[in-house]
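In the design runs reported in the main text, the only information available to the sequence generator was the tokenized backbone. The following block is the verbatim input for one such run; it is reproduced so that readers can re-run the procedure and compare outputs position by position.
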């Protein structure tokens, strides 16, 4: 745990972050991940990419940081059909 010193995580070029759990929790997490089987690559549906692009283009042009942007888009199946749930 080269980056954990004095109850904090120190990443080169960044400020330290206090660790509530201590180094043991991170060692446990690393150990568990090393035993984990490989997962398939993450795929992103084409409709999600189009929707996010439209959202970012609208917000980038306006400078807004609002999540209330609808702009004529949304759950109208414009970029593909919705299935399952969603949330923040």
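Verbatim output:
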């Amino acid at each position: 745990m080269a980056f954990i010193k004095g109850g904090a995580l120190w990443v080169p070029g960044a400020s330290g972050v206090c660790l509530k759990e201590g180094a043991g929790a991170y060692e446990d997490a690393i150990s568990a991940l090393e035993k984990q089987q490989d997962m398939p690559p993450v795929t992103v549906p084409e409709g999600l990419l189009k929707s996010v692009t439209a959202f970012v283009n609208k917000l980038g042009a306006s400078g807004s940081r609002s999540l209330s942007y609808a702009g004529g888009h949304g759950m109208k199946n414009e970029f593909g059909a919705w299935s399952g749930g969603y949330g923040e």
